[in-house]
Amino acid sequence: MKRLSDLDYLKLNKWQAFWYKFALFICAIPSAIWKGIKKLGGFFKNCGVAVKDEFVDIGSTFKRGNWAVRLSFFIFGFGNLFYGQIMRGILFLLFEIVFIVYMVLPSGGIYWLAKGNWFKIGSTIGTVQPQKNVYDPITDQYITIWGDDSVKVMLYGLLTFIFIFAFIYTWRLQVKQCRICMDITAKGKKIRSGKEDMKSLLDDQFHKTLLALPLAGILAFTVLPIIYMVLIAFTSYDAAHDGYSNLFSWVGFEHFNELFNFGQGGLGLTFGEILSWTLMWAFFATFTNYFLGMFVAIMINKKGIKIKKFWRTVLVMTIAIPQFVSLLYVSKLFTTSGLIGRALEQIPFIHDWRLANNFVSLWDSPTVAKILLIVINIWIGIPYIMLMATGILMNIPQDLYESAKIDGASSVQQFTKITLPYMLFVTGPYLLTSFVGNLNNFNVIYLLSGGNPIKGTAGGASVGHTDLLITWLFKMTLGSTESKYYMASIIGILVFLVVAILSLIVYNVIPSTRNEEDYK
Questions:
Q1: Domain locations along the chain
Q2: Segment 443-456, tens digit of pLDDT
Q3: 472-501 average pLDDT score
Q4: 268-513 adopts what CATH topology?
């Protein structure tokens, strides 16, 4: 598409300008996709080059290194001890001893790796079937023979793999440090002692000391569970194969095929419907709250409005009440026995419509239930946005509005040209996190409608018209008699991918991250 010059663009009216920008956006999609593919290819190319460089450097280190450096290839920390870095050398050596002892113990790393039958399709995770009582004629009593636990085998096996990767990384690190020590010594310079290392950790490297504990927490409580969840997706882990009373096995991509199968017996159509409603819900739940909350903040902050603190306090009261209580109560208000439901029943049109469709209450209509969820979510979300917008609006320079009034700008023009751009710039990251939060907004959906009205069963769990992916996932695990943990894990992976992709795209587009200096 041919781009217009700035002069020709200014001659367009609002609708022509809108469609021109829209056409440019559509035409830019193939180019953006191609650029993304090229960047991805470049990323893998750089990874390959980095791996190649590491192997070349390792070979060069062994070839050029002295006997102390070469011996450090087999004995951790030997080079450090040789060059006087006693503390580093002892720590590296202890790590190697601990690793070797752990791997060769009867119930150590090799044991768990052998038990896992890792990625052998059809093989059970664990080799000994679950516990059973066997009669022993010698002692004339039943003896319990303990079996394997697939969950435990997978967990300890995963930890062993992580330990192996840590071992390889540590080996590479200490070899590199030995070579650095050799090069420093060859130049006649002094090598840093253990005392200087400790001083550095409390001085110029103090940021690493502070980040060590949070990083360990992220690895243990975030990264490890994500990896474990991904592994579960490739198994037959469900209520019938819980890993304790019955071992589960590796099944490969079998369950992925089931989820993306749009034919009979597949979950493709159900997944597509729930995903589309999840995205629709996240969009409306985010932007209705955002703009209406901003509007309420503007109204309360207008000159001439009295008892402003009172209005803000009334709105904040909805935050103070626990959602578990307020949402359950509000859901009952719209039933036929609820206050609002009985009031609406007095309207003949609604009464006749409900009877004609055999609806017991408003929650039985898929369309009405979705509208109610969005409207009630507005009642929940407006106070948060109102409080945030109030603080931001007070920081907008008033001379901008005064200049706009002098130029003859209307209230709408002042909002679209000053207030809204400023709000979007400051709250861009919040909008992103709010959208992601609404994709996984379990509380509102489950406490208000429970995913109802029910439209069928899929994946061993009931599926409702208002179910989000997160509530469907919940029903597949705790809310289902079959408890298909593997399918819930697959859905969790897909939710993670959707959230990650949207977050990366939006984060790189919003002006808050691209033009940080604009509003300073």
A1: 6-55, 65-252, 268-513
A2: 889 888 888 888 87
A3: 81
A4: MetI-like fold (1.10.3720)
